[in-house]
Amino acid sequence: MSNSPESALGTILTAVVTPFSPDGEVDHDAMATILEHLIANGSDGVVVAGTTGEAPTLTDDEQIDLISFVSDSFGDRLTVIAGAGANDTAHAVRLTERATNAGAKAILSVTPYYNRPNEAGIHAHFAAVAKSTDLPVVLYNVPTRTGVDMSDDLAAEIGVRNSNVTGMKQARPGTPSAIEGLDLYAGNDDSFAAAMDNGAVGGILVASHLVGTQMLAVAHSNDRDTLDRPLRSFYDSLGVTTNPIPIKAALDLAGLPGGHLRLPLVSASAAERETIADAMRALDLLA
């Protein structure tokens, strides 16, 4: 029996990789294989073309084509959340409009990165994004990548003033706290269990590519710490270098088509792969 709050989008939402073929093209067949695996292993939904999906190196057309493909082929079995963020508000609005038309069921929108807007700018940015769609919008706070840390109070205010801003993916280091008026999603695997204890409705996760069933059990357990503890070495191994390099190596080690990466990301080194393999071996995840 679940003791966790319910989310309309789902509990285990995997930030899915974008597989690339050896010649650098988006590999829809490999994506379909991964999605079938996720459906069979605990995922309620996926974020397509987010950070883990290497959105910074996707063209807009590739990004929308991928969202459309996943929505058309899997939208009846998974909640499809479209990564549609940008640090140019006009660009984020265009992506959000196109992702909405491509069949996504929700939008994940990251705080503008690099240009580091102040609170008024962040608020105005998300108001413009929210106005451009009738879909639920999940805010995404990941200060280690963006250089901007959106306060919980600001996120709550954005939610109050924009009725379709319904959630927050919190990837700030440490344990996330509930935000009044917004569904909270853990954005880091290692904080997922504690976030659920703090009122989160689920997580937007990376380790769930391979331990989604176990993470779903954590979410619905009355003793989350006990179930989560054996997974922590695997979580740690996925931080051995920059995401999504480790999870693509892990998928390869598990016999799944994670695919190549696009520069400036490069494949895991031999030492990094061995660290990942050791953690996977302990959980019987190797092919």
Automatic annotation (TrEMBL):
Q: Which UniProt keywords apply?
A: Amino-acid biosynthesis, Cytoplasm, Diaminopimelate biosynthesis, Lyase, Lysine biosynthesis, Schiff base
Q: GO: which molecular function terms?
A: 4-hydroxy-tetrahydrodipicolinate synthase activity
Q: Which Gene3D superfamilies match?
A: Aldolase class I (3.20.20.70)
- What's any one GO cellular component for it? cytosol
The record's listing under CDD domains reads:
DHDPS
- Coiled-coil intervals: none
Give the transmembrane ranges. Answer: none
User: E.C. number, please?
Assistant: 4.3.3.7
Catalysed reactions listed for this entry: L-aspartate 4-semialdehyde + pyruvate = (2S,4S)-4-hydroxy-2,3,4,5-tetrahydrodipicolinate + H2O + H(+)
Pathway in which this enzyme or protein is active? Amino-acid biosynthesis; L-lysine biosynthesis via DAP pathway; (S)-tetrahydrodipicolinate from L-aspartate: step 3/4
Q: Which GO terms describe its biological process?
A: diaminopimelate biosynthetic process; lysine biosynthetic process via diaminopimelate
**Does the UniProt entry include the keyword Cytoplasm?**
yes
Protein role: Catalyzes the condensation of (S)-aspartate-beta-semialdehyde [(S)-ASA] and pyruvate to 4-hydroxy-tetrahydrodipicolinate (HTPA).
Entry protein name: 4-hydroxy-tetrahydrodipicolinate synthase
Q: From which source organism is this entry?
A: freshwater metagenome
What taxonomic classification does the UniProt entry list for its organism?
A: unclassified sequences, metagenomes, ecological metagenomes
